[in-house]
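W.,

You were right to be curious about this one. When I first looked at the sequence I had no strong expectations either way, so I just let the prediction run and decided to look at it fresh. Below is the sequence, 387 residues in total, followed by the output.
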Amino acid sequence: MKKISFAILIIISTLYGCSTTEKVIETATELNLVTAPRFSPVSAFEFPDFVEVTLTNGDVVSLPVTWDAARDQFDPTRIGTQTIRGRFLISDIENPNNLRPSVTIELTRVDWLETLEKTPEFSLFYQAMMASQIDVSQLATFTLFAPTNLAFETLLDFLDLTFEELLESDTLDAVVSYHILEGTYSAQDLLSVSPNTLLTLEGTPLTLNFDGEFITVNVINRIIRASEPNLDQTIHRIDGVLLPPNTFAGDLQSVLNDQALNLFADLLGGTDINITQLLGTGFTIFAPNQAAFEAYAEAQGVTLAELIQDPALTDILLNHIVQETVSFDQLLIGAPLTLISLSGEELLITVEDNQVYVNGILIESSDTTAAIATLHTIGTVILNTPE
């Protein structure tokens, strides 16, 4: 009797073991690749409620699936393929390898206008383009420098303007067209022409440089993402709004574009001085005019082109920059006083016959650029602290 009972137990155990191993997922069916244009929302895709799996015993069964958490994985801005993984809803089937249902989605490129419209960081620039009268349909190819929303907010704050006032201003077309180059310029193309200038659709050139990490546009603006993926035109994301000379009274770029300061701005762009880091605090530049740099280059026995390549140039330019905003009136009233430049040199401010001097060099003119900076134009390069 005991032998019979033992045999029955063996049979039951075997049967139980077979039923357990038979309910184990071995493979899950791969779903077809889904292709859609960039910026398609996750709601545009249909995810199956059931997915077939093959068990270790060869049986094929359909299991219920949830995709709720998986939908959060989807990035509608990313070009290329991405895999969205769901979760099987099972209770009596084992899944020791943690197999999961998955859908692979491939997002394809869209045209430049849709890229601007549907990229959140470009929403203000897109509105500016739509409000302007600029028509790029006649251009076979073009390159667009697209400022971020933060760039617009920073500029408008400095200029004490609202975005609506910018859209309604007479300068809107000039500002928008100043961000457009006719022809295709990839990041490599821009690097190959730096330092140099390229003519914009507005008619005024942009100054390009490379600061060792970023391509800079008009010295103080940086390309922070090159070549946004599009079907047709080239878009570079930049961290500042580009302004043609004298677009708004007192804006920093207009002052830097002033004829007397062109060379100083170009020389800054050829060094590792990061002017953009100073913008939040305000700063003062004692900027030598072109004649000053020409005289300095002649005294050194070099050309201006050779001067730009001089490794000592960075320290010389740092002599001219103070990391605080000091207006002409403050210099006039406060003199004699000493300021410390970014190079650590002392700048001695003196007054004689109501004229202000820095290290004995006459300040010829001054411009205050709202809360950003003050630039004092001088006729000689500052080299050393006077004895």
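Here's what jumped out at me. Residues 1-21 have pLDDT under 50 and may be disordered. And, maybe more interesting for your project: Residues 228 and 235 are 5 Å apart (CA to CA).

Coffee later to discuss?

I.
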